[in-house]
Amino acid sequence: MNERGCYCDIWDKNPEFYESRGVPRGYCGFCQSCGQPGHTRHFPGSAPHTGCWCDKHYRRLSFVHPLGTYGTLIYAAVLLVIVLLVMRWK
After folding, report:
1. Strand order of the sheet with strand 50-53?
2. How much is the pTM?
3. What is the mean pLDDT of each run of 10 residues along the chain (90 residues)?
4. CA 28 to CA 6: how far, in whole Å?
5. Distances (CA, A) of 67 to 12, 24, 87
6. In 3D, which of 11, 61, 64, 72 has the Cα closest to residue 32?
7. 83 backbone dihedrals φ, ψ, rounded to 5°
């Protein structure tokens, strides 16, 4: 397993797989958000989904999506603040 947790190791086993799809070396797919070269890997969080993202959109997804690694914490904190504010105004 490489440090990104992606499928770039297929380049070593079967380079024709990526070459036939026009994927440049060093990447294993195209970002589903922007179409730039990216990496196919597991969703950055608890959702059971595998997709392809460039590094920028992968990081953004981990913060913005409610099931993302950091997004879960951010949404939980915002919800806690809202609950505390509502309880204080009662």
Report:
1. 29-30, 37-42, 50-53
2. 0.81
3. 81 90 93 95 89 94 91 94 91
4. 8
5. 33, 30, 26
6. 61
7. -65, -45
Distances (CA, A) of 38 to 31, 44, 58, 59, 72: 5, 14, 9, 12, 24
DSSP 14-68: -HHHHHTTTPPTT-SEE-TTT-SEEEEEE-SBSS--EEEE-HHHHHHHHHHSTTB
**Among 35, 78, 18, which residue's Cα sits nearest to residue 27?**
18
Structure tokens at 71: 């997004």
